């Protein structure tokens, strides 16, 4: 008989695609009553040993009663999830809510018994670990806080799954069974485990795309030309080290090869003994589903879809794109594209050019990601080009042009680059960031190990590029940009700056500070470079003019001297051609500069040249970085590896050092400024701040009040709290808001002032007048009833009736600086803390600083000091400094409130008057909303197909 709980609404939001340990994908979804056949088939393929481990006894088959029990759930007290590949079950997990005696129970019981079963062929792929994350998230959503599991001692794999999850466990042994109990609330350890597994899995999934052992190009024409044939030719010309196959269903029986490459009508026709790791799909969009199905059935691991006609073409194409992703993932495959330019891996072991780039990029240490094919071509060209721009061009390790990035995104490629030994610098051109919250987390970790330079296109249009579906954000571009910089991302504005900065990072060490020496044979060019350094926030020394008569030996001596100066962190060499100079003089100067640079291996050297193509080429030659030369990175000494005993290596031991040469001082100095700021971020990140614990914080009391207030509102969209409720909630976190009393008439105003005590302030709270003292809606320092009544009469005479103005009376606060503190939950960026001075500075000029929540003590110090008007807080023009430590504490208390309670989606404290001692919060508003079903603490998932 079906009970009411059996009719619980199917929780579609529990469905998710995940990446497994080996890089393949699978789908996790709730088990339904329609899954009886799937469950039976799955169980038949499980070994007797695995069945014994699950049921503690021989259990060859499931009875009809078992099948009914395992497919009928109420999705509250009894839940079952399945992992599927190709629509078939490969693993299951279920929990049953139990009471303290271990018997079936309902809420408020908060413990559940959990059990797993994984098909033997899929054990070792991380399936159970992913399932544990998802079933724990489901259980937390249903009010369960603790799991219990009984495991046979011999089932070491399952015991390891629980042990390695990062939860604190209680283990007991009784009657030959190991009983494990653990809380399932996310902990720092469990999140660290989850993120590490996510990184390994997603990196592996990208590696399968970039380092395949075999590639099939589907859609290859017989004649030269066409997209498919071009990709095949590019793969051949690059010298791909694996097997190649040309596939086209139009091939006749007489076509056995295309230009020496085996030809087939379908991937099914390829010798079954040979694996097909990667398929490049270049057929019309309507034919792609059939191709994907064949690839999935054949066991292809990944797809690069260069075919167009998807989300970039309209609603019909967008739906076609969703179906493509769902279909590919159902077979465990990941997709680059659609509408992709392709992928490149220059490693000698791979030599993969599965792209439309007609020439294989030079091997190097730069990883490149571009969402736009056109921009990808431009970036590859600039990195490959010699002379005419930045010279000493470095090569590329890997290149991914993701097109519509329906599946593989910049986040996935960052996961791969993080521990890729062939990539020292990551360059990214992004037109949209699908998951800024995750991108920021990954960028912070990546930037701590290797530089990440990003330029974002379409940033001022306010809309996502065609074909890109992104989460809506309410934050302006400047705010998102600031948050990325805090994560260590080097933000630049143009692809020229992207290349300029990337090349400097690829071949020069990080500077230890902003002090710059300038030397050269042109006084004017030196002064120009000096001015640019100042405008870019560097600390230049007066330029050293060697005069136009300077020889190569003079340049070498001056550069060696500058590098030997302990007060110099970087050197910019400026050079102009002398009359009559030719290639030999250029080569001599280049050799001199390279030799001098070798004496200061820990300090970057840049050259600014004017119409000196010969020197640019000579600098490249002097560093032995011709097209066929190895691209060896420089030995960097960082704050983490340097010591007092560190000595420069002998000149003969130094690897050739490529010196980048720029055609303009602005480009060289801007790149150096970006690199210097990044180096400072690295030093700061080496000693991260802490999130302090404060007294007078009642987290439990705040949670109870929030639950009560949300229940009263009943609006799923959330609501703004009444002033008294906002004050009550903020007080739970030690944030006191000065009381205000309503004054609908002069008599009520006088009564309120009597209660509060003089002096008082009379303020309007009408929305159009709030925080607008320039309109005369605030009267301060009213010290008597007579003054108050006169102010009230004048206020209502000039601005309107009391009912329109909504006057209030508030006791006066000590004089100080008016500031504003805000926190919001942005759907894209997450929880963001903001600070600025109240009034025109923040509202009109946008002088506001931002930090991600939770904010550390260092974040609080930095946010106060990073606004342009911060000198006002620290004693500008002889004024007394205000109590910034109290302000920093307030910022962190707001951060803790929002971090502890995801239902708090908005806080605004305005104004906050910061005095010489202490501060006063005069106004506050708080917005609550039901928390999302899944948040940052949830399990690993791939973005939904869009």
Question: How do the helices and strands line up, and which of them pair or pack?
Answer:
Layout: E1 16-19, E2 25-30, H1 36-44, H2 48-55, H3 64-71, E3 78-85, E4 88-98, E5 111-118, H4 127-141, E6 146-151, H5 156-163, E7 169-174, E8 177-183, H6 188-210, E9 214-218, H7 227-238, E10 243-247, E11 257-258, E12 261-264, E13 278-281, H8 288-298, E14 302-305, H9 315-330, E15 334-336, E16 342-345, E17 352-355, E18 363-370, H10 373-384, E19 396-401, H11 410-418, E20 425-430, H12 436-447, E21 452-456, H13 477-486, E22 490-492, H14 495-507, E23 515-520, H15 523-535, E24 539-540, E25 544-545, H16 552-564, E26 570-575, H17 583-597, E27 605-609, H18 613-622, E28 661-662, H19 665-685, H20 699-713, E29 719-720, H21 723-731, E30 740-742, H22 746-756, E31 760-764, E32 778-782, H23 785-799, H24 802-805, E33 807-811, E34 817-826, E35 830-837, H25 840-843, E36 848-852, H26 857-865, H27 884-900, E37 904-914, E38 919-921, E39 924-928
Parallel strand pairs: 5-6, 9-10, 9-13, 10-12, 13-14, 14-15, 18-19, 18-20, 20-21, 21-22, 23-24, 23-25, 23-26, 26-27, 27-28
Antiparallel strand pairs: 1-2, 2-3, 3-4, 4-5, 6-8, 7-8, 11-12, 16-17, 16-19, 29-39, 30-33, 31-32, 31-33, 34-35, 34-37, 35-36, 37-38, 37-39
